[in-house]
Write a structure and sequence with these properties.
Helix content is 85%, strand content 0%.
Length: 85
Amino acid sequence: MRPSLRDIQETDRYLLQEMTAGERRVYEARLLTIPDLPEKTAHQSRVHQLIRWLARRDKRRQLDALHTRLLQDQHFAHQLQQIFK
């Protein structure tokens, strides 16, 4: 595996809290000693946030589509109205 891919994988493991306590301490020591590692870690953390946001947005669209489809069913819509009267 290329060193850059290995670094990305290691940072992912750190950010996703998949490292052992010892591995985490070694990574945190590297954060203090490698000048560009904190910035790379921060950028990768932002990528993780964007991925989570996009996944939530996709799920929201799926739920909206399901909601629309369910409300088109007259029997379901009537039952729903009875519940919330």
